[in-house]
Amino acid sequence: MKTTLLKPEDYTRAPWKNGGGIFTDIADAHRPGTEVKNWDSLLWRFASTPIVAPGPFSHMPGIDRLQMVIGGRGLVLKAEGQEFDEREPFTTVRFTGEMEIVTELEAGPVEVVNLMARRGAAEIAVVALKEPGERSLPAGTHLVYALSGDCGIRVSGEEFLVPGGCTLKVELAEASRLAFVSGLAVLGSIRLTG
């Protein structure tokens, strides 16, 4: 097990692919040997972003996306013949980067986290950690993003305190268990497959 504490000053900020806003890149991975890291070389990215006005999502062919509202409420994603309901915080929705999606804000701006991965390269999952409890973690990369205040967790019996706004990156060579002790966090999980 390898752990790295990522602090807000380690995060980078960049424009959305369509230029409609700015996202905070918490952690990402690109194809090995890539000299220029861009959307084409991306394997996966875990990021947060505010959505302050209704508008279109970026077109991202070949990318699978998971999204969860972590601040505010009332977000709905509209696609042709489909609706993704994120009106309540901590609801995860899954969609593809090819979908033409427009956001609807029913109660003002929201803050979301996104976990995206190149299709066929990784399996991804996003869940909210709100109540103490245990869960199994497969081999792979896991990101515990502490939302408000400090979060206490145990991984493989080792205790960690993740300060608010920080992210604990846990890289596991084999399956393990995570015990969520206290706080409020989002867990993003990535298992490379390709």
Automatic annotation (TrEMBL):
Signal peptide as annotated in the record: none
- Cross-referenced Pfam families, in alphabetical order? HutD (PF05962)
UniProt cross-references to InterPro entries, sorted A to Z: RmlC-like_jellyroll, RmlC_Cupin_sf, Uncharacterised_HutD/Ves
List the SUPFAM superfamilies hit by this protein, alphabetically: RmlC-like cupins
Domain of life (superkingdom): Bacteria
* Annotated PANTHER family: PROTEIN VES
What is the name attached to this protein's record? HutD-family protein
The record lists the organism as Bradyrhizobium manausense
